[in-house]
């Protein structure tokens, strides 16, 4: 008998559009860690070229170089590996944008304090503080006569704000963290009514700070930091509200650095509480060992 001939099926031709875009996904995935540095660099360049937001290029470069060099050194000494420098670059550029000082040394010290906090202030392998927030607050606590932060240098220029909104929104959209920004902004607006009622000031004067550049950078790049926010979406919303609430009390105390201080105290405390809750849950989920005792033989 003749054996049946096996027909080999030729797979259908791949559409031209699929061939064109094949390979784009791996490329975009490899670019993901570098998109926030790219966008925040664009914010810096556009803002400075348009409105002169920086003290100087030299001070910002000093902050970036100090941050990256500190990351390289500590990672090699403690972890014995070469780190990805995207995070330290963002930290350095954030310090360069937000810090204000007539001297150069605060930029280097602030950047190195920020990076060092990632390796020293850790619990269960996680660092508690947003690095740039920690470094800037530490400088404000320790050298308040030598440093300040970005506040009204940009004014409330709509063009500058639109640049930050667009680029910040792209980053937050990719990170799926719009809910954190939305919760914080809604809480700030609600609590501004409370502040106006307590102080007797016009509501517009209480709500106006959120339209400034410092707040835009704070909203998009600090409170949404994936490494220093709690895991659950509900918890993230709650922490965003608590940051806004703490900020209200700092503002009532006439603190001009209210949002930075609020995140400094609320963020790490929320992470510590989450770690404690998770440890309790893991302990309760672990079955207790049953100990069997053999009877004594006569």
Features:
298 residues; mainly alpha; 2 domains; two-stranded antiparallel sheet; 66% helix; globular
- The Rg value, from CA coordinates, equals 25 Å
How many extended strands? 4
Helix percentage range: 55-70%
Instruction: Indicate the mean pLDDT.
Output: 81
Uncertain segments of ≥5 residues (pLDDT<50)?
13-28
Q: Regarding quaternary structure, how should these chains be classified?
A: single chain
Strand order of the largest sheet: 1-4
Order of helices and strands: HHHHHEHEEHEHHHHHH
Strand content: under 5%
Roughly how many Å apart are the termini?
Answer: 81 Å
Q: What gross morphology would you assign?
A: globular
**Count, helices:** 13
- Biggest sheet overview: 2 strands, antiparallel
Specify the structural class.
Answer: mainly alpha
Question: What is the count of structural domains?
Answer: 2
Account of the protein in words:
With 298 residues, the protein is mostly helical. It folds into two domains: 54-149, no CATH class; 155-277, no CATH class. Helices cover 66% and strands 3% of the residues. The chain has helices at 16-21, 24-31, 35-51, 57-79, 86-98, 105-120, 131-142, 158-175, 178-199, 203-207, 213-221, 233-252, 258-285; strands spanning 99-100, 122-123, 126-127, 148-149. The strands form two sheets. The protein has a two-stranded antiparallel sheet. Strands 2-3 form a two-stranded antiparallel ribbon. A hairpin with a 2-residue loop joins strand 2 (122-123) and strand 3 (126-127). Helix 3 (35-51) runs parallel beside helix 5 (86-98). The longest helix has 28 residues, at 258-285. It starts with 15 loop residues before the first helix and ends in a 13-residue tail after the last helix. The relative contact order is 0.09. The model is unreliable at 13-28 (pLDDT under 50).
């Amino acid at each position: 008998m003749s054996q049946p001939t096996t027909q080999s099926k030729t797979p259908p031709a791949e559409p031209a559009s699929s061939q064109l875009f094949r390979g784009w996904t791996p490329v975009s995935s490899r670019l993901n860690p570098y998109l926030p540095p790219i966008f925040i660099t664009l914010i810096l360049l556009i803002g400075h070229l348009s409105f002169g937001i920086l003290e100087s290029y030299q001070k910002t470069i000093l902050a970036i170089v100090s941050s990256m060099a500190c990351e390289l050194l500590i990672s090699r000494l403690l972890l014995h590996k070469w780190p990805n420098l995207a995070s330290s670059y963002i930290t350095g550029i954030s310090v360069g944008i937000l810090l204000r000082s007539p001297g150069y040394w605060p930029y280097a010290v602030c950047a190195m304090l920020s990076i060092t906090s990632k390796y020293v202030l850790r619990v269960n392998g996680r660092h508690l503080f947003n690095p740039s927030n920690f470094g800037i607050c530490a400088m404000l606590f320790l050298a308040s006569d030598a440093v300040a932060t970005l506040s009204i240098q940009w004014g409330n220029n709509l063009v500058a704000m639109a640049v930050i909104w667009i680029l910040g929104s792209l980053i937050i959209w990719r990170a799926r963290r719009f809910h954190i920004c939305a919760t914080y902004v809604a809480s700030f607006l609600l609590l501004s009514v409370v502040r106006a009622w307590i102080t007797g000031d016009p509501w517009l004067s209480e709500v106006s700070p959120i339209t400034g550049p410092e707040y835009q950078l704070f909203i998009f790049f600090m409170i949404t930091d994936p490494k220093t926010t709690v895991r659950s979406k509900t918890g993230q919303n709650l922490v965003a509200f608590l940051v806004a609430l703490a900020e209200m009390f700092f503002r009532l105390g006439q603190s001009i650095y209210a949002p930075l201080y609020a995140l400094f105290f609320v963020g790490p405390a929320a992470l510590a509480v989450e770690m404690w809750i998770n440890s309790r849950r893991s302990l309760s989920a672990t079955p207790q060992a049953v100990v069997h005792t053999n009877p004594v033989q006569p």
